[in-house]
Each structure stands twice: as structure tokens, then as C-alpha cells.
Description:
By secondary structure, the chain is α/β, with parallel strands linked by helices. 29% of the residues lie in helices and 22% in strands. The chain has seven helices and eight strands; from the N terminus they run αβαααβαααββββββ.
Amino acid sequence: MNIKIAAAGFAVASLALVGCSSGESTSESTPSPAATSAEASPMASPSADTIVDVAAGNPDFSTLVAAVEAADLAETLSAEGPYTVFAPTDEAFEALPAGLLDALLLPENKEVLTQILTYHVVEGEVMSADIEPGDVPTVEGEDLTIEVTGGAVTVNGATVEAADVEASNGVIHVIDEVLVPPNVDVASLTG
């Protein structure tokens, strides 16, 4: 169960990591450098900002933030939590098949967009030093598969590029791909 919680929190942490701004430090904990090949954020101390605030403050998450707003998840991801978020960058969204992102952002596809975004979120705050290989349940309901090989962490094959971006309500781990739950058929959205 800790792995499942860790994965969800990792998704949230990804959002916070890239967008982390200087905030009040409430913890002196330092992530283990051996836990992931991704470098821990130099601002790994907890932030007064929520996961959404941290992501919104980082230009590398503008697409993610737009998607969170389109799915009406900003309030949820600003709630107490804690959450772990595996946050895909703008570059990860750009790698989606042509037309898919535009289709996902349409109001009529809000439910599918919500499924995809909540598939990046795990309940609980899981720091990189606490990540273990295995399947982890997401807020969406399907499991993510976490692998740790030689210090490198992957989530369903996506590489964790930066870890332990702390927010007031969880942690973000930055990933290089958009994760799609196995029960979602995105091909039907593009034609």
C-alpha cells in the first residue's frame, strides 16, 4: 500500500518540483541521492504553496496547469492532501499524438482528461527516498508500475527527471511522459 501511496504522491510532487518557488521551510529532511537518478530539487524544503501553485509558478508546467484547470481539478489538488504527483512537463505533452491534447482540452472530453490527470496522482506524500518498486494505486483507480533500476526511477516507463519538489499539500516528481490509464482509449479522440 505504501508503494501505491508513493506513486500518487510522486505525481503531485512532479508538479511542485518544477514549479517550486522559495517558500517557508518546515522540514530539514533531505532526500536520499541514491533513491533516484533524478536530481532532487535544490528547493526541496516544504513550500507554503500548494501543488497547483508550485506548478503554476513554473513555465515548464503551463500545459499541465491548463489541463488541470480544464478538468476542474485545481481546487482538488489545492486541498489538504497530502498527494504525490508525477507531473509531466510541457515537452511530455508535446510528444502526444497530433491533435490529442487539443481534443482532451475540449469540454466534451473533460471526463477522459480527468481520468488521465488523476492517473498521475497518488494519495499520500512519497519522497524519492521512500519509493519502492511495485504497483501503486492512483486516485484514478488504476495502478502505476514503479521500477527502480540502478538508482533510476520510472513510472509506467516514464523517467523521473526531477524529484522531491515539495508543496504544502504534497510532493511533485517530474516525469518525461504523459501517462494514460489502460482503461482509456485516446485513439478514439483523434479520429
